[in-house]
Each structure stands twice: as structure tokens, then as C-alpha cells.
Amino acid sequence: MAQVFEKIDDALRAWLNKQHMFFVATAPLDADGLVNCSPKGYDCFRILNEREVAYLDLTGSGIETIADLRENGRIVFMFCSFDQAPRIVRLHGKGFVHENGTPEFEKWLPLFEPRPGMRSIIRAQLTRISDSCGHGVPRYQFLGDRQTLLNYWQSKGEAGTREYQRTENATSLNGLPGLRTTGA
Q1: How many domains, the chain?
Q2: In principle, which of 21, 34, 67, 180 could form an S-S bond with 176, CB 3.0–4.6 Å?
Q3: Could you list the residue range(s) of the whole structural domain that residue 134 is in?
Q4: What is the pTM of this model?
């Protein structure tokens, strides 16, 4: 049955750290705005303390998470177990954006492996931690991380990545401001 937790305890921490992917969802305040849900892979999620988490955000085609967080701060992380034991864990909270090139980004970066295309660290103070059964989630086998995204940003180089961020990550699909540090 579903359970609400006061904090991320040792058992939950161990379970979260075993998952190879998670999803991040945000939404603008505008009722007609698009809800965003993004899958995340690589070893980019960190538990900072019992009620705070962060992940290393890599450049992508959209800037929805950053834009939505700047507007209202609402965020939820969802982890699904795809192995033998079904489980879903949701971490609701207030999110903060620390863009690459800012002192806050530099403060948190030592917790992560630097990767090509880094654009921010998303940090969240958790307001609700819960799980549910996950009996409807299919079983999958983890075969490994795809290297395509990292290889792409590596080939673009820092200048090419910044130019992409400046032109493609300036505003969200909902028209909200995106990245600030790229000169956009």
C-alpha cells in the first residue's frame, strides 16, 4: 500500500540510488500551458540530505523544467522500479535552478561527474515523499546508458553548446524565460 515518508531514510536512499532513470515533471501556472515530463538517465541524481535532492541537468531541445521552476518552483521526481520488486516513489518539492557559470552551480558541481552539455543543477527541497505499489509498471532490463547525448555535446564543444543554449534554450514552449547565463 502507499506510504508517505517524513524523510529519505537509509532504506529509501539505497533504493533511489539503485534506479538507473527517473522522471522530472513541472508545469507553468497558466492553466492552458503545457505540462512537462522529462526522463533522466546517467548517474546524475544526488540525495543532499533527508529532505533535499539535486540532479545535473544536461542541455536538451527544451528548457521547460528551468522555465517552469523559475515561474513557480513546483517539481516532482518519479522513480519506478523496473526489476522484480515493483515500486514507484515520488518526491514533490520546491525546485531551484543553478545555471552553469554561477557561483551556486560551482558550489554543487563537485557532487557530480562533469559532463559535456551541462547547463544547470536543479535542486529541490522536498515537501512530500511517498511511494505506491507500481504493480502496473512493466519489467525492463537495464542494458547501459546511451552515449549519444554526451557525444553530441562533446562534438559541439563549449562554444557550440553555448550557442545552442543561447538560441534554443532562451524561452520555453509556454513562452517563459529560459537560460540567463548564455547571453540570450
Answers
A1: 1
A2: 67
A3: 3-168
A4: 0.95
